[in-house]
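Quick question, first post here. What does this chain look like in 3D?
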Amino acid sequence: MDGDKAVAATSPFIVSGSCLCGAVQYSAEAPPRSVHYCHCSMCRRTTGSAFAVLAWWERDQLEWSGKFRVYRSSPIAERGFCPHCGSPMVLAYDGQSEIAVHAGTLSNPNVFPPTYHYGSEARLAWADCAMALPAKETRERF
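> Answer (accepted):
Ran it through. Tokens below.
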């Protein structure tokens, strides 16, 4: 994962976001290809919450300012966070061209609501959010 590309200066359509302290920022000239809730135990633990909300882009669609720190979160994926404030920033599966940013880091997350649940087999019984959306079980196994 590359966390230090320069942020694009101008664009007709820009999606942007940052960590809590602003040291790591990103932008894209296209909307995310998908946004979803993830209920898997790794997403719960990395966010410290009942689920994560992830927005997915092709890696080369995101421009970065500042550098996030990367760690291997499982045998199949890496995650990135701000080394200054600790905000979780990204998830990237090995060998995939896509990268997910945590939707809470978007400057305007209301524009991109989640459209489905992922890891639904691990959903906490008390996590009552958008229950009418389609649900998919986790595909990745290790």
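Helices lie at 41-47.
Residues 3-11 have pLDDT under 50 and may be disordered.
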